[in-house]
Amino acid sequence: MDTQELKKAGLKATLPRLRILEILEGSHERHLSAEDVYKALIDIGEDVGLATIYRVLTQFEAAGLVQRHHFNGAHAVFEVRAECHHDHMVRVDTGEVIEFADEDIERRQRQIVDEHGYVLEAHSLVLYVRPKPGSPNAAD
Amino acid sequence: MDTQELKKAGLKATLPRLRILEILEGSHERHLSAEDVYKALIDIGEDVGLATIYRVLTQFEAAGLVQRHHFNGAHAVFEVRAECHHDHMVRVDTGEVIEFADEDIERRQRQIVDEHGYVLEAHSLVLYVRPKPGSPNAAD
DNA sequence: ATGAATGCAAAAACTTTGCATGACG
DNA sequence: CGTCATGCAAAGTTTTTGCATTCAT
Fold first, then answer.
1. pTM for the whole structure
2. Sheet architecture: strand order including A118-131
């Protein structure tokens, strides 16, 4: 039950918060904008204000339940925090988001930052890609 | 003369474009927002509209003269395109931007993308850092 | 001269906030 | 029941656009 998850995060288990969490966890597309969540809720007949969505998503982010990304400069997208860290590829032709993890890059990042006299707080890596001709991806 | 640079890029050498290019090239801080450029122009008594700054920066980007970054979700910053590619570190305490280049990461990125059946079109890597205690940076 | 560029102001897109009402514990 | 959350609408930010005027070639 998501109720426990919310309480564990120090948040009251209100209906809007439960609904928003359900959408984020249940969606096939893991990366949703506030507007996406809003539309999904309207679709299932839940009447939640857009302002609430923004407020709740910000709280979820602060509580570590979700992560906020800015794949394109415009609007933010949110994804439920995965167990294991990963970065993202974005197809420039379709906008599809593909997750990947690579310990080599992670390690090298920490090393570079350390060499400069800093500590790595967070990072954002997005690879913008297009299908390689002849690859199975070219079909989509 | 920047006039040549603009014409070579296929852009008419208008006064606003020349001024904006001068600001970008002459600024100590290499990463400027549209607002930053606007204020810098006002400061030197040049009366250029903010809308023009946005239009010109977008043209510069299309022409390959500048690169657009989104270090924070809010506003975009622009930098004159450097001869050699590099990525960025952003100090979370001061907002200072530090440039770095690492061929290991670049190579690994291309490899990962290739393994997934894609071609790397572009990428964005930002490391958010804080000074390492005891390092010379901690002082600033 | 002629088409493109500019400036202004209005609009657009995304997100945040104020305040009265309603819900959780 | 007290407090925090919600909804609505209004305001805030950043960026874009329409249109008459001005400028570069």
1. 0.91
2. A97-100, A87-91, A118-131, B118-131, B87-91, B97-100
